[in-house]
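REQUEST ID: PR-0412
SUBMITTED BY: lab tech R.K.
PRIORITY: routine
TASK: structure prediction, single protein chain
INPUT:
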Amino acid sequence: MADSQPQGPGVPDQPSPTPTGKGLLLTGARLKDGRTVDVRLRNGRIDAVSAAGSLPRDEADRPPRMDLAGYLLLPAPAEPHAHHDTALTAPARGLPPSRKPAHIQRRTTDAALLQLGHGATAVRTHVPIGGRDGLATLQAVLAARRALRGLTELTAVAVPRLLSGIAGADTAAMVEDAVRMGATAIGGCPDLDPDPAEYTATLLDIAAEHGCAVDLHTDARDPARLAELAGAVGGVGAPVTVGPCGGLGRMAGHTVADVADRLAAANATVTLLPQGGCALTDRQLPFATAPLRVLQDAGVRVAAGSGAVRDTANPVGRGDPLEAAYLLAAQGAVSAAEGYEAVSAGARTALGLPAVRVEPGFPAELLAVRGETLEGALSLAYSRVVLHRGRVVARTSAVREFCDADAAGTPELPRQAQG
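STATUS: complete
OUTPUT:
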């Protein structure tokens, strides 16, 4: 199989903006329920959905058309847990990644575009602050966000290393500066602080004062500490996300159920990383994924993300939301639909974004994947068309070819498999 320049029906000539007034008409797309429809987009939203060929055509105001015959049309996924400041740095060859702001901005931009090509039209990346670099890394990530505006929604979580003790007071002030600069969430790993309770309490106080979300890292290898964390965030007005909680996948069933009940009572969202961990999790332990089904049964909101994208935490991380959904389904714990729900609706909820359904009135954040069923799309999701704010922003066209079986020693033009 090889990537090629897009050809033939179903792929636009180029991913360019469409006129705001006329919008875009997607024709012949298949939905998850099996219907084949035409979808009209206008002003960044879904304007109409109707049976294929049934939308009225006003020649005076006819929008550009895109033939999506053979494609499955889905709500676009989102990435709730990324570390783009260190992305694409493996193999490290024994050297730490460059911390020059220009290099961080470049890596962040490249990683966000990589994930956009996979279909993620919104990304939350965790950005370290404090220490020798201060707020320089955050400034570089925010510069990447400005450069990507209109292509993808990139948001940043300000992540301090320490918040307890005398040194913690200065870092806490820096967290507040980070929010004023443009960080939309604050977070970090309480387990790495000498006083996890003070770390969490300080973050929650700042979040309450500034009205921002909280995103906490924990591997959850200590059920008692995770229960304490759930108790601390319970009743907090700010949205709270906890993840990746891989330790839950290594606990006894009754312990997991008890912790899940506490997380549900705390109204927290849990972000799973089925592709692997990240730099803030304990890489000395065998990797595990938190049990999605147990969490859901307890009433916990669940999202799934990619974690590291080819850095030291996961040198082969793809950053592909569809692979995360595939892994959840392949593990047998959930269906393909539930796996995709975790990387789409679940991820958008974790990021505080509005819901997306292929229905009139919803945001035109869409992913078209070549295939007829969701199971098939997750299995062989190569060709994709990504729409953000109602326009095509990325496309991937993959062609698989086979040589002629009758060719004996003479190179022949490859042929494509049928069906």
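NOTES: Residues 143 and 166 are 31 Å apart (CA to CA).
REVIEWED BY: pending
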